[in-house]
Amino acid sequence: MSVAAAPAVLDRDGLDALVAALVARGRTVIGPTVRDGAIVLAELDSADELPFGWGVELDAGRYRLVRRDDQAAFAHSAGPQSWKNFLHPSRERLWSADRTPEGEVSFTAEEPAAPSYAFLGVRPCDLRAIAIQDRVLTGGRYADTGYGRRRDRALLIAAECTEPGATCFCVSTGGGPAADAGYDLALTEVDGRFLVRVGSEEGAELLEQLPHQAADPGIESAGHAAVDAARDRMGRSLPVVDLRDLMGASLDADRWDDVAARCLTCGNCTMVCPTCFCTTTEEVTDLTGDHTERWQRWDSCFDLDFSYLHGGPVRASARGRYRQWLTHKLSTWHDQFDTSGCVGCGRCIAWCPAGIDITEEVAALHAEQVADPGTETD
């Protein structure tokens, strides 16, 4: 929801006050921080834990922390995690069952109280990813109630991108470095200060509690210019073609053999992807057999068992599994959810141990189609 409120400016003390105000409201603040050689998402007790002065160097299969010449808090690209880790956790208990000495069985649904999250520093690509997961997990006939409870109580504070990484390609997926919708507050970092835009009533109420100043035309102009410049400095891009048609016409392309020779089918790309949502269920019992639990956990279309039917997996080859992932992500996702499944965050490129680049693969498929337009599809 858009709220009419004049842009404001926070300084470092205002950012400290923002985190303190969120904690005082009983919210669990999650934001970027430096840990284990990466910028990861974790619970924050104060703004001091933000990655001030840290940036990253990215390439296919490569991620490195680097020191910056300034003390910018949000001048880094997306790390290995996304907000999916909190809204759609990797493992979640669904129910448990107990058998009494008399042989009766009782079932107990797992419906814990949802945490009251405040996500600080959500990139625009991840705002789009959250909107896509909302559509997937709560917009259909069978809603994921656990996701819905967590999402309903989450407050989103965006951080617009002013320095895209070398693996970023959000502009070519229809997004960009600007936060357009879906936030409660949006921050744009400009020379140690933070231009703030309000996107909801709760965001407006929160801003009123913070020490802030009215935004002057100079900082507004500088903020817009920094974001616009970032739009022109994307490290990568997808071909400017109809990706739905391209993927549908490339099912027999030779390029799939090329990428299959490099792909380890490890599933890293699906784990770091902010929109991949597939899960499976498993039952766990104690040694007595009197107590059992059903757990939901992340799954991946790169797993052989993912497509297992009686007699074996449907997609036994690396070619088939990679093709399924990429074709679903860029093409058939539209048929299911009326949107692409890719937001251009670049995580799958940086965190692929083989350095496979989705933008390079799509460009190669397009080049093959142009060279042989008569290729038949299966």
List the helices and strands and how they pair.
Elements: E1 8-10, H1 12-24, E2 28-35, E3 38-43, E4 54-59, E5 62-67, H2 84-87, E6 91-99, E7 105-109, E8 117-122, H3 124-138, H4 145-152, E9 155-159, E10 185-190, E11 193-198, H5 201-208, E12 213-214, H6 217-231, H7 243-248, H8 255-262, H9 268-272, E13 279-285, E14 291-298, E15 308-309, E16 312-313, H10 318-337, H11 347-350, H12 358-371
Parallel strand pairs: 2-8, 8-9, 9-10
Antiparallel strand pairs: 1-11, 1-12, 2-3, 4-5, 6-7, 6-14, 10-11, 13-14, 15-16
What is this entry, summarized?
This protein is an alpha+beta fold. Helices cover 32% and strands 23% of the residues.
Task: Kindly describe this structure.
The protein has 378 residues and is α+β, with helices and mostly antiparallel strands. It folds into 2 domains: 224 residues, no CATH class; 129 residues, no CATH class. It is 32% helix and 23% strand. It has 12 helices and 16 strands. The strands form 4 sheets. The chain has an 8-stranded mixed β-sheet, sandwiched between helices. A 4-stranded antiparallel β-sheet has the order 7-6-14-13, with no helix packed on it. The chain has a two-stranded antiparallel ribbon with strand order 4-5. Strand 6 and strand 7 form a beta hairpin. Helix 8 packs across helix 10. The model has no long low-confidence stretch (mean pLDDT 94).
The averaged pLDDT comes out at: 94
Report the count of strand segments.
16
Instruction: Evaluate the radius of gyration.
Output: 22 Å
Q: What is the strand arrangement across the widest sheet? A: 3-2-8-9-10-11-1-12
